[in-house]
Amino acid sequence: MALRLLLHFLLPLCVHWVGKEMTVSVLVDVTTAALCSGGSTCAEVIYINGLQQTIVGIFKMVVLPLLGQLADEYGRKPLLMITVSTSIFPVASLAWNKSKGFVYAYYGLDTISCILSQGSILFISIAYVADVVDESMRAAAFSCITGLLSASHVLGNILARFLSENCIFEVSIAILIFVPVYMQLFLVETVRQAPRQDQHSTGCTMIFKVLQERCISMKKAGTLVLRSSTLKGISIVSFFYELGMSGISGILLYYLKAAFGFDKNQFSEILMMVGIGSIFSQMLVLPLVNPLVGEKLILCTALLGSIAYALFYGLAWASWVCTLTYFQDSRVPYLSASFGVIYALVTPATCAIISNASSSSNQDPRNQPLNSSHSFACLGSHIEGRCCKNTLKGKSARIRCWNPVRRKFVITSCNESSDITWFLSSNAPFDCKGFSIICASLCMMIALCYAVLLKEEKPANEESKNSIEDVEAPLLS
């Protein structure tokens, strides 16, 4: 029974990831051609990407926890169907026309889609798997999910590598439409909906009640995390890791296009390398190694891999790196991509640590502050970069930024799209094209330090059960 549930769940999920991924490598060429007047890159396209991710980061701080609680009350199935459906509209705009106006429309629709689906699909998926998989098998199950995510990315990039740019978006739309249809027909709900009260309340009363219960629920969920040293520590690790990785992922392909002249085919090859390595590590290595060494050592090793990944990308342009690695300058990014085999383990290891520190029926509430820290990190990686650019022109290359996890000021580095534009231009203060990516690696180093100090613990059964009942109060009752 559980196997059949997982099959009908994982199949549309993988198809959705394939449809999304096959457009990634071609988007750089399409948006650059529309906005940069034939140039290899321009400030406008990079700034728009930075602005988009900043807006997404702001709204995800509220939307991710809200979707998580709605998934607990109304079920995983309707929330999954809504989130996967939002991906259809941005792709449809570019399938219709690739002119400048439609590219702007794409960014607007994609921003809304990312707010609703980026991160939420994975977190709801993890909750779905936790509903049907025994606690002892969750680490392997989470690893399989992320492994299938990587496999879907590989297949999507293979399609992008060999399909014509003119038909990629049409094929992607057909694939993305298939997903919600399949879910409606075959996906089985795993959450039993509690009977609702006050069904005849007015709209204003219901909205006020939603906001009130949202605040109460978030406060109690935050209390649960703060009482657990494991959950508090892993939230900080996740924050700094996402702070670095979100700053890299948003501008990496544009950096490679500007610094090395990469096109759709080379983007697809690099993304395929990362995906194939991730499949191997997540679906084969992690289930075998996890019982022997535990999630903490795997997390620390994966964070080391992410640091090497960022440093090699940031220094790939330098001639001495080519000499040291015996690679041509355009091949060093491929070496950097190979570290995806290692850093891909960060997500399943993090999920396993959170799941082990939570009771079986309290998966989502304890994930809510983590989801928020993920959103804060996505926002922070872009806000910090804007502050950093101004600061570098003055006295210091470091800035003070607000860390929402520790609630105090910390010294952080900067890694944002505006810096990439600056350091790729002739006005750069010094010759370091990948300076922002190198700064991002410092965030991963901080995450590694916290991961080393992380203490794993098990939840107290009775206390957890009482807390669960409080936190899991329905959002709309």
Query: How much beta, percentage-wise?
Result: under 5%
Mean of residue pLDDT values: 75
Biggest β-sheet strands, sense, barrel: 2 strands, antiparallel
Helix/strand structural class: mainly alpha
- Overall geometric form: globular
Helical percentage: over 70%
- Strand tally, please? 2
Q: What gyration radius follows from the Cα positions, in whole Å? A: 22 Å
Number of helices: 21
Q: Widest sheet: strand order?
A: 1-2
- Give the SSE order as H and E letters: HHHHHHHHHHHHHHHHHHEEHHH
Low-pLDDT runs of 5+ residues are 375-416, 462-477
Distance between the termini: 31 Å
Please, could you describe this protein's structure?
The structure is a single chain. With 477 residues, the chain is an all-alpha fold. It has helices at 2-21, 24-35, 43-74, 76-85, 88-96, 100-117, 120-132, 138-162, 168-186, 203-227, 229-249, 252-260, 264-314, 319-325, 332-337, 340-343, 346-356, 363-392, 417-424, 435-452, 461-471, and strands at 399-403, 408-412. Helix 4 (76-85) runs antiparallel to helix 9 (168-186), helix 7 crosses helix 8 (138-162) and helix 11 runs antiparallel to helix 20. The chain starts with a helix and ends in a 6-residue tail after the last helix. Residues 375-416 and 462-477 have low confidence and may be disordered.
Give the gist of this structure:
The protein has helices at residues 2-21, 24-35, 43-74, 76-85, 88-96, 100-117, 120-132, 138-162, 168-186, 203-227, 229-249, 252-260, 264-314, 319-325, 332-337, 340-343, 346-356, 363-392, 417-424, 435-452, 461-471, and strands at 399-403, 408-412.
